[in-house]
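Whiteboard transcription, Tuesday session. T.W. wrote the structure tokens on the left side:
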């Protein structure tokens, strides 16, 4: 399978910003049910040797348009070699693939459609485990994956994080959504201290000030949505709220991104339980105040 990084990232060796399609693997149980997927995380780099040559079979597809990336995801065989991986899309477009150095390039109408480049720098080493939705027995389900990972010698990367997705349906109510923004906007530093956020974790930043300011008082959903757009909201904040503002969410979740990386199921579940309690407070329509309010019951919850 291909794994798509859905936000463009800079690639200095080629210049410009690209969407990345990298190799991923779907792990199935004997019954055919999905156990997990194993994918690359291109933000992980501190533990890797950037000068290492690409391992045969490891390459990535690069494009600058999400629509093209989705087309490539469907048309290009992830098991194909770098010499052949673009052949199917080239045939579809009636074009020929060129070789430029160690990169395969497909142009159409004078514009580059896609590049296939070797994934050197030990990109075969990072591995992100993505589980299907877990509804019960969370610790047991995580241990089923993490115990073998430890036994195989895997470790936690320098920049690692655990990303926790929760069902987004309850958070579209404007009062609840405003509380969610207040939680991660007003209480950013206490939350990061409470959860032990990894200071080396990349792609984290405070929610846009436009959105935090809009959460004051009792805003409408439309006002929050407009503020999110004005503030340039993407997934790469402490909490990913982007799907709450879409009419057609790709994955209808709220993604909490500030949990530290871990390879221990008990540790992951413990922090997830803290987040669950905090999110329960958001569902209470009473506005979450800022830190320092002497009447703030939320401070007690944070210390618990």
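and on the right, the sequence the group agreed on:
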């Amino acid at each position: 399978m291909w794994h798509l990084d859905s936000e463009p990232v800079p690639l200095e060796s080629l210049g410009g910003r690209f969407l990345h399609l990298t190799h991923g693997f779907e792990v199935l149980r004997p019954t055919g049910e999905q156990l997990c997927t194993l994918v690359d995380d291109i933000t992980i780099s501190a533990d890797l040797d950037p000068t290492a040559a690409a391992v045969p079979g490891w390459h990535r597809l690069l494009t600058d348009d999400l629509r093209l990336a989705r087309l490539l995801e469907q048309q290009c065989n992830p098991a194909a070699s770098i010499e052949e991986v673009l052949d199917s899309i080239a045939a579809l477009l009636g074009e020929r693939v060129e070789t430029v150095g160690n990169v395969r390039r497909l142009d159409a109408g004078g514009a580059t459609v896609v590049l296939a480049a070797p994934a050197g720098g030990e990109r075969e080493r990072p591995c992100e485990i993505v589980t299907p939705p877990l509804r019960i027995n969370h610790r047991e389900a995580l241990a089923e994956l993490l115990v073998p990972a430890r036994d195989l010698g895997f470790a936690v990367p320098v920049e690692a994080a655990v990303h926790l997705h929760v069902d987004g349906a309850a958070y579209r109510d404007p009062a609840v959504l405003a509380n969610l923004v207040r939680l991660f906007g007003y209480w950013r530093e206490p939350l990061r201290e409470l959860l032990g956020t990894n200071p080396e974790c990349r792609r984290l930043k405070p929610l846009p000030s436009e959105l935090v300011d809009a959460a004051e008082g009792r805003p409408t959903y439309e006002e929050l949505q407009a503020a999110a757009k004005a503030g340039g909201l993407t997934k790469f904040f402490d909490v990913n709220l982007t799907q709450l503002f879409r009419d057609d969410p790709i994955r209808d979740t709220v993604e909490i991104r500030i949990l530290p990386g871990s390879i221990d199921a008990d540790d992951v579940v413990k922090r997830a339980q803290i987040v669950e309690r905090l999110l329960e407070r958001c569902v209470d329509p009473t506005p979450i105040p800022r830190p320092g309010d002497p009447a703030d019951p939320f401070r007690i919850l944070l210390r618990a």
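Someone added at the bottom: The two ends are 43 Å apart (CA to CA).
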